[in-house]
Every structure is written in C-alpha cells, then in structure tokens.
Amino acid sequence: MEGICKRLAPECVLLDIQVKDKRSAVSAMANSLATHYSFSNVEELVADILAREQLASTCLGFGCAVPHAHSAGLETTYIGAARLSPPLVDETPDDQPVTLMFLLVGPPGRASLHLKLLSKLARLLHDGELRDKLLGATTQKEFLNSICEKEHGT
Fold first, then answer.
1. Cβ contacts of residue 35 below 8 Å, gap of 6+?
2. Cα separation values, 147 from 15, 46, 68, 108, Å
C-alpha cells in the first residue's frame, strides 16, 4: 500500500494558517489539494467532507483531527495537512483545541485504502514525539519529513 508520505505533497502542507472554523480549515486544505493536483470540484468535495463531519466528529484528541470523506469527483486518494495557529476550538474527546488537521479524501470505490490510511494516520498522531515535531516544523518539507520518518520507522 502506498503510505501517507506518497500521498501528501509538501505543497499540500499548510503551516500556521488562521481559520475561524472547521469549514474554513477544510476549505483551505481542499483548495491546496485542488491547486496541486488540478481538479476542479472543490465545492463538492468540501460539502462531502462537512456532510461526513455531521455524522460524527473526526477529532482524535491530542489536538488532532482527520476530516475525511469519499467524493464522486475524485479519481484517487489525496491527503492534505494543516497546522492551525491559533488552534481551533472544536468538540474533542479531551477538550484540547485542534492544532493539527489532516484531510483524507478519495473516490467511493476505494474504501479499503481509505480506512487503512485513516487508521495509519490515527496511529501516527497518537505519538507525542511526532506531534511535537509537527508543531515545531519550520518548513513544509520538515513537516513532511517528520511524518515519513515515523511512518517508515527511521
């Protein structure tokens, strides 16, 4: 399986973005994916993600959230990331505001891959050392390298 590192481009890592709510965070990440990968159904994608959020919060705790959805307009699975500054106050299992948000989107026919990537992201984000590295990263490349090192066990 292609992992997180193969699906998260440095250009789709947004550092210290200021957002007022979950919708604007999701929209910023969806727009970065659409720009980098040249697809045009951003409004539909954002609507699909927010509809999924209505079912249950995707906040994991530890200041992390992974909004995700299947969207008919996509041909493959994409991942985006954002570090929010200031953190976003949202309903979370541990009452910590969200500082790290990953967006996972893909076509409806790839549910198995979607679940595997979602599970892997959740496991990685439970690692306090990795979260600290992501919060301290000064560049998109450094942010991505921290994830890749952890994902590949180096």
1. 11
2. 14, 25, 18, 26
- Helix, strand, coil percentages (3-state) for the chain, rounded to 5, are 50, 20, 30
pLDDT per position as a tens digit, 129-152: 999 999 999 999 999 999 999 999
- Residues marked active site are found at 68
Pairing of the two strands 59-61 and 64-65? antiparallel
Collapsing DSSP states into helix, strand and coil, what is residue 42?
Answer: helix
CATH number, domain at 94? 3.40.930.10
Pull the structure tokens for residue 121.
């992201």
Range of the domain at 44: 4-151
Tokens standing for 78?
């994409």
125 Cβ contact list (under 8 Å, min separation 6): 60, 62, 64, 66, 100, 102, 131
Domain count, the chain: 1
Cα–Cα distance, 112 to 15 (Å, whole number):
29
State the pTM of this model.
Answer: 0.94
